Amino acid sequence: MRRPQISTTLVAAATTFALLAGAAPAGAADVVGRSFRAPVPTGWTTASTDRSGVRTFSLASKGRLSAANVPARGRLGLATLEAPLRGKGRRLSVSALADAIIGVPTGATDVRRVGRGGTKVAGAKAVSVRLTFRFRGRRIYQHDLVTRRGNRVIFIEAISDVSRRSAAVRELHTYVGGWRWR
Predict the structure, then answer these.
(1) pLDDT of 66-87, one tens digit each?
(2) Domain 5-181 is of which CATH architecture?
(3) What's 24's DSSP letter?
(4) Distance from the CA of 117 to the CA of which of 25, 30, 154, 155 falls in 20 to 30 A?
(5) What is the rounded CA–CA span in Å between residue 106 and residue 75?
């Protein structure tokens, strides 16, 4: 699955962030973006960066997420990207933003969309997309949410091995359940 141009900035920022950001100690209280605040799961490590107005947050149940936002085998990951919408992006619907942003890591194979629908993040309209794919010999589950707040797009992703899907979904619901707009 190829990502259109709008997501190139987000992917590049996430890759740079994963390579350069240091992990914060476990127990960080909240992830704080320009437009939101969300709870970090107890005991998880966090890393973040802010490059060219694109804020990225990486949370892992242990260790760090890879540059492709995939956790170590058997672990869980949450990634959040927040970026300003510019130009034509400001006029796109949440559904169109989801289509433009959501993708899988380069090299993923056997990509299957297992669900898509509307949902809410702290009362804001959002799109939920669930995918499975094969990546570096592993079967991966990815659950993405895309929403917006004013002229900012927010992309939230839970990712794990397919065998840990239930735990990943539970952590995503807890993370989004504690989401507060600023």
Answers:
(1) 999 999 999 999 999 999 999 9
(2) 3-Layer(aba) Sandwich (3.40)
(3) B
(4) 30
(5) 20
